[in-house]
Amino acid sequence: MSRVREGVRSTDQYPNRYINYTSGLPVQHTSSHIMPFFKITLIRSAIGLPVKTTGVLKALGLRKRMATVFHPVSPQVAGQIMAVKELVAVSEVENAMSKAEFKATRKPDPGYYIETPASEALERHI
Q1: Is the pLDDT of residue 23 over 80?
Q2: Which of 37, 46, 49, 108 has the smallest number of CB atoms closer than 10 Å to its CB?
Q3: Taking a C-beta distance cutoff of 8 angstroms, is the pair 34, 75 a contact?
Q4: Is residue 10 within 8 Å of residue 3, measured between CB atoms?
Q5: Are 26 and 19 in contact, with CB atoms under 8 Å apart?
Q6: Bridge partners, 89 (sequence order)
Q7: C-alpha to C-alpha distance for 57 and 64, rounded to whole angstroms
Q8: Model's pTM, two decimal places?
Q9: pLDDT tens track for 39-82
Q10: For 99-103, which contacts have Cβ atoms below 8 Å and span 24 or more sequence positions?
């Protein structure tokens, strides 16, 4: 008897060993495996494009130009990206970032640094 889970099959002989349906090769799944993500940014507007295209963008979570979303790498998301490949920029990253983390990466350097005189620095350490 075998169990079916998300397109892979495990056998009773090897419960931690999964076999890919398409290639038949064993695939080892571990909890420490880092799952990659697609970083998708909408570059061009969907104004004037067919409803099907705007629907794909909406399904991906892209509403405004230069908006960025993160999706786990999967065949379904890859198919959606291929449907709108002319409108988006895609890269593969190891970790998805939250909105706050992504905004912090875009924050520029303040351009100045506040330094204390040496005499004040010595007074603090004494």
Answers
A1: no
A2: 108
A3: no
A4: yes
A5: yes
A6: 41
A7: 10
A8: 0.61
A9: 999 999 999 999 999 999 999 999 999 999 999 999 999 999 99
A10: 102/68
Q: What would the pLDDT profile of 83-122 be if each residue is shown by its tens digit?
A: 999 999 999 999 999 989 988 888 887 777 777 777 777 7
Helix (H) or strand (E) holding 42: strand 37-42
Longest CA span, the chain: 77
Give the pLDDT of residue 12: 52
Burial class (CB in 10 A: 0-12, 13-18, 19+), 54: middle
Tokens 């939250």 -> residue: 98
At residue 5, what is the residue type?
R
pLDDT at position 87 is: 97
Task: Tell how far CA 9 is from the center of its chain.
Answer: 26
The 3-state DSSP class for residue 100 equals helix
Pick from 40, 30, 25, 31: which is nearest to 72 by CA?
40
Please give the single-letter amino acid code of residue 49.
L
Query: Is there a contact between 62 and 37 (Cβ–Cβ < 8 Å)?
Result: no
Rounded to whole angstroms, how far apart are CA atoms 71 and 90? 11
